[in-house]
Design brief:
The protein is mainly beta. The protein has 1 helix and 10 strands; from the N terminus they run βββαβββββββ. The protein is globular and about 35 Å long.
Length: 133
């Protein structure tokens, strides 16, 4: 199954094939600041399953991580890490809503107090290393 998405102005479009490796909700301060929202919902896919068309700009979000957004409108689109074969697409960029539901929440110590936890595993900070994808 193909899923499509892109930025607010349409200058960047992407197509992803198949299902995600995992779906999460992140409350970390970097995601909050980058999105101007209380959290970031994302789905991780194998990089080879995602085709991106259009010009993106990126910036280092951590020692090995990079955020990618539209060079025209600035919409945040996805995140990648050096040496990793995954791409985390922001769910807000998908053309159709309701395609994925978070399977876990991370950085819940930064969750807004008015946001109720989802009925999924909760991690105070990041997902433990080695946790099945």
């Amino acid at each position: 199954m193909e899923r499509r998405g892109g930025c607010a102005c349409g200058a960047v479009r992407y197509v992803v094939e198949g299902g995600p490796l995992r779906v999460g909700l992140c409350h970390c301060m970097t995601c909050r600041k980058r999105h101007g929202a209380p959290c970031n919902a994302f789905a991780a896919f194998r990089a080879g399953k995602v085709r991106v068309e259009g010009q993106t700009l990126d910036w280092m979000s951590s020692e090995h991580g990079r955020y990618h957004g539209c060079a025209v409108c600035g919409s945040p689109l996805f995140w990648t890490a050096e040496g990793d074969d995954e791409i985390e697409l922001h769910l807000g960029g998908l053309d159709e809503t309701g395609q994925f539901s978070p399977q876990y929440e991370i950085w819940v110590k930064r969750r807004e107090p008015w946001m109720m936890p989802l009925a999924v595993p909760q991690y105070v900070e990041n997902r433990p290393a080695g946790l099945a994808s």
